[in-house]
Write a structure and sequence with these properties.
This protein has 138 residues and is α+β, with helices and mostly antiparallel strands. The chain has three helices and six strands; from the N terminus they run βααβββββα.
Length: 138
């Protein structure tokens, strides 16, 4: 599959649970960090938006765990983004272990932006980004 963005990581010891595998909640940190780095790479600063009163929020996270990562494993988080409704966007994210490209998980993380009045919206910066994917589903 072709992805719009990817980011490589290495599992740290403290991210593992008593079973010696990455704790399921830690995967959400990997996914979030990748989304933030993607936005930065596209010229959208998450923190700067927040200072302007535009808050990007997750409204839904669907994760299918396929295979565990262990301490020291290297892996890649890949993503694509699309507009999923008039006010929502969805990040389709997959994690692969390196170097064998074993699928670790699939996720769809849906979000929106909230303005200073707490109303959902899609800021023009993000609309331009989503509009470039060719996958809008309004």
């Amino acid at each position: 599959m072709d992805y719009r963005f990817s980011l490589d990581f290495k599992v740290r010891d403290y991210e593992c649970d008593l079973q010696g595998v990455v704790n399921n909640a830690v995967y959400q940190n990997y996914l979030e960090h990748t989304r933030h780095e993607f936005l930065l790479a596209e010229g959208i600063d998450f923190a700067a938006l927040a200072r302007q009163g535009i808050h990007l929020v997750v409204t839904r996270a669907e994760i299918d765990y396929r295979f565990p990562l262990r301490s020291g494993d290297r892996f890649r988080v890949c993503l694509n983004v699309e507009q999923s409704s008039r006010i929502r966007f969805s990040f389709h994210q997959d994690i692969y272990r390196l170097p064998d490209d074993r699928l670790i998980l699939n996720a769809v993380v849906t979000g929106t932006a909230m303005n200073e009045q707490g109303r959902p919206m899609v800021p023009k910066e993000l609309m331009g980004l989503i509009g470039n994917t060719g996958k809008q589903e309004l």
